[in-house]
Amino acid sequence: MRRRLPPLSALRAFEAAARLNSVTRAADELGRTHGAVSRQIRSLQEEAGVRLFDKAGTGIRLNAEGEALRRVVAGALDALEQGWQELREGAGGPSVHVACSATFAMRWLVPRLAGFYRAHPAIRVRLSMTSARALRHEGADLVIAWDRLSYPPADQARAIRLGEVAFGPVCAPGYPFSTIKGALRAPTRIAHEYTSRAWEVWEGEAGQAMAWDAELRFPHTHLCLEAALSGLGVALVERRMAREELAQGRLVAPCGFVPFQDGIAAIPLSGRATVPAAIAFLDWMRGALRDAA
Fold first, then answer.
1. 51 Cβ partners below 8 Å, 6+ apart?
2. What distance in Å separates the CA atoms of residue 93 and residue 200, rounded to the nearest whole number?
3. 132-185, pLDDT tens digit by residue?
4. Among 238, 285, 283, 276, which Cα is nearest to 112's?
5. I need a surface site. Which of 14, 19, 57, 270 has the fewest CB within 10 A?
6. Cα separation, 34 vs 198, whole angstroms
7. Distance of CA 248 to CAs 42, 63, 174, Å?
8. Given pLDDT bands bounded at 50, 70 and 90, which one contains residue 131?
9. Cα gap 18→53, rounded to integer Å
10. Nearest to 231 by CA among 199, 188, 195
11. 157: Cβ–Cβ under 8 A, 6 or more apart, which residues?
């Protein structure tokens, strides 16, 4: 029986505009003109016999009918994207697609990947950079994270613990970080823009209160580290991420480091998270994290 479906190009235009709340941004993403995307959406609405967007100032906003269609289309495109990626990756041999923060990749994972390849020369590891602000991970099978509150509860429940993490305040030698009446004080606190709760977790685990006069925020941990190295303030980092600077005396950790109970974990994002390649990678990560604790 012939399928009764609208053109895939129209569905892609609709999904992009719905996700980005903008026809202009959808056109940029799809490499089309604004007029072409508008025509595709208009054609889709005419075929459906119902409007999918309402005007919102100078932009657009999904209405109830549009939201219902968006859920269906987004789910279908996600499944298609994942299936296509699995097909392509499968053709190249065993593989696992891992998403993690840029700082973790640069400072810990990539320098140790040679050890994984020596143990598993037939398995390819594909890396994607991600952050706590984004829940799309380019079709990754696993995402590595310590702060998992930004993920849906179902994803949090599937998290696979890999090892311990320990966080502590770090600053340049001589930076005025002091203890006054039992409370820690610094002129400036440096926070990660998307995981700023790390400071609150640290205060609870360390049993210390932190006071500051000003706060700087950066979107990546390596920027927080660079700011601390430049004497801009006190940053809170996982000890592995600052090990080299601490060993060289370029940073100091006046309070040491305290473990965070949740540790670091892998969150499965696809059905391929249980294939032998992924299991081998997870086993290797557990050992590597333990050895480098």
1. 45, 63, 65, 66
2. 44
3. 444 445 578 899 988 877 777 888 888 999 999 999 999 999 999 887 776 789
4. 285
5. 57
6. 42
7. 62, 57, 15
8. low
9. 8
10. 188
11. none
pLDDT digits (tens, 9 = 90+) for 63-103: 999 899 999 988 888 778 777 766 766 665 678 999 999 89
Name the average pLDDT for the chain.
87
- Is the Cβ–Cβ distance between 6 and 73 less than 8 Å? no
The answer to whether residues 282 and 163 touch, using CB atoms and an 8 Å cutoff, is no
- Nearest CA among 159, 92, 130, 153 for reference residue 219: 130
Annotation: CATH topology of 8-88: Arc Repressor Mutant, subunit A (1.10.10)
- 3-state secondary structure (DSSP) of residue 179: strand
Burial class from Cβ neighbours inside 10 Å (0-12, 13-18, 19+) for residue 224 reads buried
Give all strands (DSSP E) within the chain, no chain letters: 53-56, 59-62, 95-101, 124-130, 142-145, 160-170, 178-180, 183-192, 210-218, 234-238, 258-268
Judge whether 164 and 175 are in contact, CB under 8 Å. no
**The CATH number fitting domain 93-293, selected from 3.40.30.10, 3.30.70.250, 3.40.190.290, 3.40.50.150:** 3.40.190.290
Check residue 237 and give its pLDDT: 95
Q: Do domains 8-88 and 93-293 have the same CATH topology?
A: no
Q: Please report, for the chain, how many H helices and E strands are present, in that order.
A: 11, 11
Q: Is the pTM of this model over 0.70?
A: no
Integer Cα distance of 92 and 72 in angstroms: 31
| 7-40 per-position pLDDT tens digit | 888 989 999 898 888 888 888 888 889 999 899 9
Length, in residues, of the chain: 293
CA pair distance 161, 18, nearest whole angstrom:
35
Every domain of the chain and the residues it spans: 8-88, 93-293
